[in-house]
Structures are given as C-alpha cells and as structure tokens.
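Page 37, continued from 36.
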C-alpha cells in the first residue's frame, strides 16, 4: 500500500475550504487545513465530528498567504511531518464588493495580495515539496467572475482572471516534472464571504447609490439559490483522484453557461443592458444625493 496522500488547503476555516478539508479527510487524505487564525477552527472541528471522519487526518496549520514567513514555516512543518506534499488547493479568499470609486485601494491591494500574489507565493514555495510526490497536483479555486465581469465586482473579477492566466502559464513550466495544474471555476456558492456580505461597501451619498439599490436585491436572490460548498469539494476530490484530470472544471450550471455564452454576447448588448438596468430615473441621482436615506447605505468596513 502506498503512503497516505497529503494535501494542503488554504482558507479551511469555513466555506469551500472547510467542506473540501472534511471530504478529503473522509476519503483518506492527510489534510493540512490552513487558516490565518487557528482559533477559528471550531467550525472545522465540529464538521469533522459530524462527518465521522478520522480527526487524526486533519492537521490545522496557521498560514497567512500574504506573509512569506508564514508560508515558509507551514511548509517546513509539512516537510517535517510528511516528507512531501501531494496536492495543494489554493482556496484562501477575501472579497471587495463595491463600485470602483467607492472602494478603498488598501482593500483592493489586500484582495490581490490574497487571491493572486499570495497564491503565487505559496505555489512557488511549495513546488520543491510537490516534486517529491509521484503524482503532484495544484488546484486553483477560481470563479465564474473570471469570465463574466459585473457591477461591484471589478477588482474581484480581475483577480480571478489573473490567477487563471497564471495557472495556464504555469502548466508549461511544470509539466515536465509531472505536476498537474487544475482550475476550478464555481458559480455562486454559499460561503462566509457571501453570507455575511463580506467586503461590502455602500457609502452614504455614493454616486452609485441607485445602482446599489437595484443590484443588491439581485445579488441576495442569487445567494439564496447558491450552490452548496460540498459541490465544490466533490469536484476538488474528483480532480485529485482522477487519473487524467482536466485543466478546468466547472461547478454549477451558472458557471458553465457563463463560460459558454460569454464569447457570443456582443459588447453593444452588454452596454445597452447596463444603461437600461442602471441608469437613474430623471432627477433620481440629484434627489438621492440631496436627501440620502437616514443612516446612509450599509457600510461593512
């Protein structure tokens, strides 16, 4: 019998990362479940207990992908315990939900540091350990937002598109070493980021107030119909277990439709739709700025 396969999952304290950690532990993997704050492991511990998975297969690590020292420390611990790493799942994420003029650039930089530069830094540092595996794999959890940009998601969409292009390029560099690169592109799914409106910024008196008033109910309706994070976990497991994994996996009908339909929608149709949906009614912007709602628009900074 071969050695137990090991996997490092970032952002495992909740949502997609948590579901993936539990499922892979059930399937016999040795899971290094990483999170910025291990004190937030209670939800993971509870999920492992409820699933019946062997808790010895879950090793919680403190890992902040935006800190190189934290990355080095975590990989040294994995090397000490396992001697190698068989798979890496880049899942850590944050969100910025605001129109461009309303967001703070420090929040935008934090998002890119986590979703793009953090994943790149961790992947680069993990490659020597991954090469010691007979079948190494790296998974990048992307989003359908990588192909279909939308209002209030300018920075998030840009980051997800960037990490997909990074993954496409990385294939060429590591194929000779047998490292498989896999991109997961989920549609809208239930997660802490969505459930808590994480990263949402709605400044009182915003130029985009009318747009927010129209788009936010649509966002909330989509979240109510969102996919279960277990769907993503199952696709990660399929990508890791498949003898010949695909480069890209879609999770959910909305991801598939967005990817297939996007190239065929003319830009003039997008422009017309945006103008019709989000243009203010006559005098609405002037009235909104002159008489903002009491308490202003919700701010989650």
């Amino acid at each position: 019998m071969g050695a137990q396969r090991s996997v490092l999952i970032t952002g495992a304290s909740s949502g997609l990362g948590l579901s993936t950690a539990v499922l892979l532990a059930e399937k016999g993997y040795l899971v290094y479940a990483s999170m910025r704050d291990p004190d937030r492991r209670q939800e993971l511990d509870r999920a492992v207990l409820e699933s019946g998975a062997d808790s010895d297969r879950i090793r919680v690590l403190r890992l902040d992908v935006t800190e190189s020292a934290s990355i080095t420390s975590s990989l040294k611990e994995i090397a000490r315990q396992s001697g190698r790493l068989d798979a890496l799942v880049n899942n850590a994420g944050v969100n910025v939900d605001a129109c461009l003029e309303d967001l703070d650039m420090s929040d935008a930089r934090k998002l890119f540091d986590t979703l793009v530069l953090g994943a790149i830094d961790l992947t680069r540092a993990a490659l020597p350990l991954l090469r010691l595996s007979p079948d190494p794999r790296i998974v990048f959890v992307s989003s359908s937002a990588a192909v279909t940009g939308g209002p209030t998601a300018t920075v998030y969409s840009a980051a997800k598109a960037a990490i997909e292009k990074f993954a496409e390029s990385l294939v060429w560099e590591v194929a000779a070493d047998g490292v498989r690169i896999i991109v997961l592109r989920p549609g809208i799914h239930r997660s802490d980021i969505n459930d808590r409106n994480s990263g949402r910024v709605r400044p009182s008196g915003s130029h985009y107030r009318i747009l927010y008033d129209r788009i936010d109910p649509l966002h909330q309706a989509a979240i109510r119909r969102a996919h279960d994070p277990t769907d993503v976990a199952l696709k990660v497991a399929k990508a890791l277990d498949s003898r010949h994994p695909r480069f890209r996996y879609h999770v959910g009908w909305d991801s598939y439709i967005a990817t297939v339909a996007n190239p065929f929608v003319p830009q003039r149709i997008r422009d017309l739709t945006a103008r019709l949906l989000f243009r203010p009614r006559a005098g609405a912007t002037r009235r909104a700025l002159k008489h903002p709602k009491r308490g202003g628009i919700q701010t989650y900074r």
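The longest helix spans residues 105-130. Flag for discussion at group meeting. Confidence is low (pLDDT under 50) at residues 291-301.
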